[in-house]
Known about the structure:
Blueprint: E1 10-16, H1 27-31, E2 36-42, H2 49-61, E3 65-69, H3 74-87, H4 89-97, E4 105-110, H5 117-125, E5 143-146, E6 151-155, H6 167-176, H7 186-200, H8 204-209, H9 217-227, E7 231-232, E8 236-237, H10 239-251
Amino acid sequence: xxxxxxxxxxxxxxxxxxxxxxxxxxxxxxxxxxxxxxxxxxxxxxxxxxxxxxxxxxxxxxxxxxxxxxxxxxxxxxxxxxxxxxxxxxxxxxxxxxxxxxxxxxxxxxxxxxxxxxxxxxxxxxxxxxxxxxxxxxxxxxxxxxxxxxxxxxxxxxxxxxxxxxxxxxxxxxxxxxxxxxxxxxxxxxxxxxxxxxxxxxxxxxxxxxxxxxxxxxxxxxxxxxxxxxxxxxxxxxxxxxxxxxxxxxxxxxxxxxxxxxx
Length: 263
């Protein structure tokens, strides 16, 4: 990214709207300090609408252009296109004064793994330009994509920083799927997610699983296991299966629109 930054007019940084601060790579601020910046609150359709507004205000105050988006919606892509035009107006004016005409805006698409960069690019381009997947690490290398006469995108692989100083941020990223499930203790994570949901979004579990929400996180997980038939021989709850089911429901929005951190 550092090698290519001199070629770029604009950085489009995708963050997960459910955890906008935890899903930002802080190194991008240093890399892009002299560039126009657009924060795309992706997966906004899965996040709490009131918190989407609060995060939009937060980033706008810090000087970013901000768009709330579901990358699969063409209407949201039109909004992104409009903001790219607005963000690159000064660059076009500089080009005009120097006698440069019709040079496309070059935008770098950046973000951590599994935040939806490839889906965004394909949707924005209106065609399949990149591989997509619901696991982190699908994009392996960088590639230029010419969208039209006005915009060229540089797709970059999702990069997590090498060490998490903030364990809460790491936990939020694990909740959303930015860290590979197979290196995590999903049962322990499920208990933490249940504690958060019952505290901040009471009624979500009751609505999805038709169960009481009182008691410990372990008791809640046992109830989910019972309600969904996640049971081993001898009527023992299958905590692992129930945990994976819980995360599948959370990540797909079936538990409702939930935001994990507030500005």
